[in-house]
Amino acid sequence: MIFCRHCNTNKKEEQYNKSTSRCNNCESKRKLKYKDTPKIDVTEKECFTCKKTKSLGDFHNDRRTPTGKTSSCKECASERMKRWYWDASSARKQSIKEGTLRRSFGISLDEYYRMLEDQKGFCAICGNKDKTRYLAVDHNHETGEIRGLLCSQCNTGLGCFKDNLQLLTNAYDYLSYKET
């Protein structure tokens, strides 16, 4: 028996639609709700945002509306999403960074910024600043011990060498041999 949270009843497994998390009866009702929406046959529509009349191809599909299209054109919807992204981005990015640091390395954003301050904002290997991104937290994959902050290129380089000192030594010897 599986409990359908939409009609609050227990249903046999064959009466339950796992892909929609509804029993077959509730799924049929949901589909009918949109099927009964009267459709209007038009070739053009006025955008709610910019007030320009555009062809239906300039609008996203929305089966809940009489025209089958969204109220704002694709261009206006894209602009709205860009504004939302940039308006909320700094707080959202900081929140995401905090969660990632906590989950992956067990440190807070304040601890990360202290490490960044200790390194004066520079990569621990090459000494460059990564202007476009946060410096990556470099850690020992076996012990989890944090070693420092690296730019994306140095972090990727160490990752390619699998943190193996012998491979790094071989690379150093190779470069030294080829320079002479």
SSE layout:
Blueprint: E1 2-4, E2 9-11, E3 16-17, E4 22-23, H1 24-35, E5 44-46, E6 53-55, E7 59-61, E8 69-73, H2 74-105, H3 109-118, E9 136-139, E10 146-150, H4 152-160, H5 165-179
Antiparallel strand pairs: 1-2, 3-4, 5-6, 7-8, 9-10
Highest CATH level, the class of the largest domain? Alpha Beta
Helix content: 40-55%
Low-confidence stretches: none
Classified in CATH, the superfamily of the largest domain is His-Me finger endonucleases
Describe this structure in words.
It is a single chain. This protein is of the alpha+beta class and 180 residues long. It has three domains: 1-36, no CATH class; 39-106, Wheat Germ Agglutinin (Isolectin 2), domain 1, CATH 3.30.60; 107-179, His-Me finger endonuclease fold (3-Layer(aba) Sandwich), CATH 3.40.1800.10. Helices cover 43% and strands 18% of the residues. The chain contains five helices and ten strands; from the N terminus they run ββββαββββααββαα. It has a two-stranded antiparallel ribbon. Strand 1 (2-4) and strand 2 (9-11) form a beta hairpin. 8% of the residues are buried.
Question: What's this entry about, in short?
Answer:
The chain has helices at residues 24-35, 74-105, 109-118, 152-160, 165-179, and strands at 2-4, 9-11, 16-17, 22-23, 44-46, 53-55, 59-61, 69-73, 136-139, 146-150. It has 180 residues and is α+β, with helices and mostly antiparallel strands. A two-stranded antiparallel ribbon has the order 1-2.
Structure keywords:
elongated, 180 residues, 3 domains, two-stranded antiparallel ribbon, Wheat Germ Agglutinin (Isolectin 2), domain 1, His-Me finger endonuclease fold, alpha+beta, 10 strands
